Amino acid sequence: MSKKRTAHIISHTHWDREWYLPYEKHHMLLIQLMDTLLHTLERDPEFKSFYLDGQTIILEDYLQVRPEKKEQLEKFIREGRIHIGPWYILQDAFLTSSEANLRNLQIGHQDAARYGTIAKVGYFPDTFGNMGQAPQILRQAGIDNAMFGRGVKPTGFNNTVSDSDYESSFSELLWEGPDGSRVLGILFANWYCNGMEVPTDEKEAKEYWERKLADAEKYASTGELLFMNGCDHQPIQRDLSEAIRTARKLFPDTEFVHSNVTDYLQAVNRSLDRELSVVKGELRSQRTDGWSTLVNTASARIYLKQMNQRGQALLEKVAEPLASFAHLLGKEYPHHLFTYAWKTLMQNHPHDSICGCSVDEVHREMVTRFDKSRHVAETIVDDSKRVIAEAVDTSVFARMGAEARPLVVFNTTGWERTGVVTVELDAERLYFRDGFPLDEMSRRMQALDVSGRTLVDAEGRAVPFTMQDLGLQFGYDLPDDKFRQPYMCRRVSLTFEAQNVPALGVAAYAWLKLAQPASSPAAAAASLLNGDRVMENALLRVEIAEDGSLVVTDKQTGCTFRDLGVYENTGDIGNEYMYKQPNGEMALTTKGLKADIRVVEDTPYRATVEIVHEWSVPASGDTVFEQEKRELVYFPHRKGQRVQDMVPLTIRTQVSLSRSGRGVELQASFNNQAKDHRLRALFPTDVETAVHRADSIFEIATRDNEPAAEWENPSNAQHQQAFVDVSGAGAGLTIANLGLQEYEVLRDGRNTIAVTLLRSVSELGDWGLFPTPEAQCLGEHTVRLEIIPHSGDGSASGAFAEAYRFQVPWTVCQTGVHGGPIASGYAPYRWEGGALAFSSMKVSEASGDLMLRWFNMEGAGTELGLHSARGGETVYKSNVLEEAGPLVSEGPSVSLPVGPYEIVTLGMKRK
């Protein structure tokens, strides 16, 4: 007798914290839902379980309003009737950083563990595409499965086995990461609401289940059929037990079970008896028509992406390394502050939040959260850098001259770094506590002579610098043991090139009156300018054409890239989710538009030329477009155009080349007064290749320039993190960005990299008309990019490392003249590793051990060499949850093989 098919009915709700309603309105609905859930679980023992959408933040949100329900909630979690975790929030995978994805998993596990249970489910129900490294991340976290709704096209049981990397014969499949890690994938082929609102009426139930069972069997590889009983903000089905009894009566050949995700996955694993399709790498709906991929959420409300990049970099690339460094010097690591800062930041990471595809009220609140998280991170940075600066021996400067004002430069990236830094120094202070009248304090500070001083490094070498006198300033200290201490000071701003600061290390300088000439006089270095249109250093030559476009020559390869930095403008009659250019419209560009060009900086360490385009673009979409929105015309079918009226769009671009720079930095500012349009910067590569690479989550993903045959959308925009790269034999071009996460490699014969700088739209989109006037992004904007030519191998040439350095701000701290246990040029760790990219340095809350993480950018194995300047440490291999694994070394030096595309974490335990 054949085995019955089993209908696994899993009760859940997909909880977008904010979307088409502001957060608090969704929050109030959540309180009602959770109250109903607890009541249902109490009164109905047949209502077996409920899955809380994979995100532990729901518990926080509920208990914030209902703290008296905590004991009852904990009871049902411990009994296994409410399943929680493994994430803190359901993030957008591509618009949040590698480390943010891990903090989400780590904090979700920490929060769930407090209740005694964690649902080990790789849950991505509505992520707008899935990252290629998810299988490796999940496997390292002890999760052997992934449940997701987007990115793969099911072909159905009766079709032949799929021959595509992005199709699956069944709703069950094997998902393989670039390193070879595999998890069992469960595709919501009929979406995560295919078992919602089950009827209790027999007639309705018969019709319902005949349809639903057939739909599930069309794709299922086993008799274990999945029915997700819930949807977006779906209330609890309180009569589900009755509905299941009705179904059992009507379909005796089917076993209806009020199931849970864990039991369902175990049942599928037991029942698998056929070969499953293997789907590899990123799941971005490659084999679709391209109209519903939601990829253009990467360019909706770009200001949010910029704030997020700044917040993530400040936490993971500045605050965590500095706090770790300070911890090695004896300062307590502020785990509680980091958890608070990360949670506050991650509340902006759900797909409807960071994607910019919600109503305006949602995104206004996000700005506040970004600020709050950043303020916490800045506090940690300030506290940590002072501890480290005070540990740096600056006593040498007292012998070099008078009135020394030392400062410490911190390189918190994973690579040695040279670059231009700016620091504000107090030349002198007078504290209010000293009893001086205010007018005398002001007079004395303004009379202070700040001329005739030199900037020197710890070896006594003079360093070229420029000074801006900021004049009289008010300030205050906040001591740990007394009331705030206000003061008046004379402040200056110094700008100079810090050279060869070690990775994760420090370099000391001082601004002083020299007692004798510097060991290496600050001779006026040659200008980097040749006239007002050419900049040149040892590596690069930059020529500026009359229309403001750049010609950049890589002097190491002799390759020249032309027409870089032309701006393109098109209409956009789409929405926050998807871009749609008006039919038949020709793009406007600044090609041939004469620009105003002038030199704004000419120093020994950097040259900057400003390019101003006085441009005009159409003011908005037309009345046809407005009518189509009201009529809910699906955006690919819209016929609207842009109006004939023009508004000014003045773009002010500063092009900078530093003396030691291996890239050309661009900063563009503009005041957007147009609506319904898109602005991009174009970088033709003229490199012949069918593929390109883009920085993604722990991966430099390789993507095709040409989309699949099914792709109908004229646009083929993609996600990026830090950069996109087009490379060929002997030459390549990397374009790095700060928070500009949408690009396209154009099919224009030149393999042009187009980076989106702004997209202005007027509605949310999706399932109705939700006007979003603030998504037009009117007003002032500033964007930053870096052009990095290289020899054709972005990893080996160091171009990718330069793009990663570009993401991280310098940190500088004024300090005093004092002794200390560490010298200028010190770094606690030194590493080398071929194609490895450094990712993070932090302290594990569970163990107190220092954790260092890298990932292999390439498909060949490599070797990680690590040397500790501290000694006395045991080194072990960890996983992404920072759990201790096998011992690697008990000495100061480590040599560890790293597999292709492997994410490797090392724990450093003090003996």
Question: What would you say about this model in short?
Answer:
By secondary structure, the protein is of the alpha+beta class. The chain has 15 helices and 46 strands. 22% of the residues lie in helices and 33% in strands.
Structure description:
With 911 residues, the protein is α+β, with helices and mostly antiparallel strands. 22% of the residues lie in helices and 33% in strands. It has 15 helices and 46 strands. The protein has a 9-stranded antiparallel beta sheet with strand order 25-26-27-28-37-34-33-30-31, covered by helices on one side. A 6-stranded antiparallel beta sheet has the order 24-23-29-36-35-32, with no helix packed on it. The protein is globular, with a radius of gyration of 29 Å. The relative contact order is 0.11.
Residues in β-strands, percent: 25-35%
Model regions low in confidence, pLDDT < 50 over at least 5 residues: 157-163
Radius of gyration: 29 Å
Count of strand segments: 46
Number of helices: 15
Label the overall shape: globular
Order of strands, main sheet, comes to 25-26-27-28-37-34-33-30-31
Helix-residue proportion: 10-25%
Domain Glycoside hydrolase family 38 central: 297-370
Keywords: Glycosidase, Hydrolase, Metal-binding
Family: Belongs to the glycosyl hydrolase 38 family.
Pfam families: Alpha-mann_mid, Glyco_hydro38C2, Glyco_hydro_38, Glyco_hydro_38C, Glyco_hydro_38N
